[in-house]
Amino acid sequence: MRMDSMTKMWVSLIGIGLMAFSAIIVAFARHKTKGWIRGVLTFVAFIMLMVGALYGLISMF
Questions:
Q1: Chain-centre distance for alpha carbon 41
Q2: Mind telling me which residue stretches traverse the membrane in this protein (predicted)?
Q3: pLDDT value of residue 36
Q4: Is 15 within 8 Å of 52 (Cβ atoms)?
């Protein structure tokens, strides 16, 4: 299945947004939280980073 250029643009922007939002979550977790909440937020940010990277890879092909 081929994607047109507009679809690729939106997939790429979603990937960039997820990666940026995960960086904000990690920064917030490290500066404002402690304990298990920090771990949960970091884990959620890691998952968002991986999904964002996957979206970025998909948009290249």
A1: 13
A2: 9-29, 35-58
A3: 96
A4: yes
Q: Is the dihedral of CA 23, 25, 28, 29 positive or negative?
A: negative
In this predicted structure, what is the pLDDT of residue 27?
A: 96
CB atoms within 10 A of CB 17: 13
Q: Which residues contact 55 (CB under 8 A, 6 or more apart)?
A: 11, 12, 14, 15, 18
Query: Cα angle vertex 17, ends 28, 27, to 5°?
Result: 15
Non-local (6+) Cβ contacts of 11 within 8 A are 3, 55, 58, 59
Tokens standing for residue 57: 């890879």
**Residue pLDDT, tens place only, 5-56:** 889 999 999 999 999 999 999 999 999 999 999 999 999 999 999 999 999 9
